[in-house]
Design goal:
Helices cover 41% and strands 21% of the residues. The protein is of the alpha/beta class and 147 residues long.
Length: 147
C-alpha cells in the first residue's frame, strides 16, 4: 500500500472547482492530512463542511507560505485565478511539493516556462487539472462529432 501524504490546498473564493477538489480529497485513501490556505478566509467554512468528517482537525491558514512551512505537504493543490497562481506554485515547488494546478496556471507562457524549469530542477511533478474532459456537457458534443 502506498504511503499517505499531506496535501496543502491554496485557494481563494474564485478558485475553480474547489468543492469538487475538496470532496475528492475527503474520499482519497492516500491522504492523511489536508490544510487549506486562503488569504481571504472566505473558503474555510466550505472546506470545513466538506473535510471535517474525515479531517476533524482541519488546519486553515491565511498565508500559503505559513501553511507550507508548518505542515510540509508532499503535494499542493493550487486553485487560484491564473494571474494569482505563478507565485504560489513557485513557492510550493521550491518547498519540495508536487503541484496540481487549476488550468490555466499562468497568463503568460514565460511564467509557466519558469515553473516547469523549477519543477524539473527539483524533480517535482507540475500537473495541470483538466477535469472537464469527462464532464457530460463536454463529452456529449465530442461523442456526437465522433459519431
Amino acid at each position: 500500500m502506498a504511503e499517505s501524504i499531506k496535501v496543502g490546498v491554496i485557494t481563494e473564493p474564485t478558485g475553480a472547482h474547489l468543492e469538487l477538489y475538496l470532496k475528492s480529497l475527503a474520499d482519497c485513501d492516500g491522504v492523511e492530512q489536508v490544510a487549506v490556505a486562503d488569504s481571504t478566509g472566505q473558503t474555510f467554512d466550505k472546506a470545513k463542511e466538506i473535510l471535517s468528517p474525515r479531517f476533524p482537525n482541519l488546519l486553515t491558514y491565511r498565508s500559503s507560505q505559513e501553511m507550507i512551512r508548518e505542515i510540509s505537504p508532499q503535494m499542493a493543490l493550487v486553485t487560484l485565478e491564473a494571474h494569482h497562481s505563478p507565485q504560489p506554485i513557485k513557492m510550493a515547488l521550491e518547498a519540495g511539493c508536487h503541484v496540481l494546478a487549476e488550468k490555466p496556471a499562468c497568463v503568460r507562457t514565460d511564467d509557466f516556462k519558469q515553473l516547469v524549469e523549477i519543477a524539473d530542477a527539483k524533480q517535482r511533478h507540475l500537473m495541470l487539472a483538466l477535469a472537464n474532459r469527462i464532464a457530460p456537457p463536454v463529452k456529449k458534443p465530442k461523442d456526437l462529432v465522433h459519431s
